[in-house]
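Working notes for the structural subgroup meeting. M.R. asked for a predicted model of this chain before we commit to crystallization trials. I am recording the input and output together here so anyone reviewing the notebook later can reproduce the run.

Input as submitted:
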Amino acid sequence: ALRFEAAPGTAYTYQLFNGAALNDAGEVLFWADVSSGGRGLWRWTGSGEESFVALTGEVAPGFTTVPLDTIGYFSLTADGPVFFGLLERVEGVTATTDDVVYAASSSGDLVRIAREDDLAPGLGGAKFGSQLFDQSSPVSSDFGTLFHNRSEPAGGGFGDNCLWRYDGSVTTLIAIEGDFAPDASGNTFRGFFGSVMNDLGVTLTHVRLDPFGSALYRFGDGPPQLVAIEGMPAPGTGTNLLKATENRDELGINDA
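Returned structure, recorded in token form:
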């Protein structure tokens, strides 16, 4: 793609390129400003013309008339694009219903995997709450997409922090506030921050504990596994103790 070229799928031209994501197949998802003043995403598969994904100021994917206001976090998995968006607050969309997360399904179709006020699977009528995007969520890998969110109970009130995973077809709750925290002196999970996920869907997550403390837990096919906990001896450092971190940039997990 070149500046001032026609941007496929729109009536506009590219003006400025702002960033890109790459998957293991060498495909590219890039972010560009266009002549309308909007900002959009396009995917290039390695040959031929790039394909349009989404553009601010135009109708949001999965809606008939509501425009997309903002595109935030984005990445590219083996299935296709993942991105966070904000909807324009028109036609009934409000500050409590405008967050949305999109991801490619295993068939390659772009689907809405979560939106504020949508029903949250497995929670008996509770809904996805606000802040579907934060400094550490969503994250993605070739397995799918992981995000943190606070549920909103069906009857209103203050909900629970949750950790969700989308595998290309189904969104699954993998942990919730109040779950027992293994090997943590009887503590329970209170919040989830700073996650990373490998291509097998195994997740390393910073967890706040209740009533106090924080830890790193590995979430896979079995029960959660404690990796490290605040206050334990830091291996190889003498008498130093581990301190908490909530930054996913400080974490890593491989496919083993």
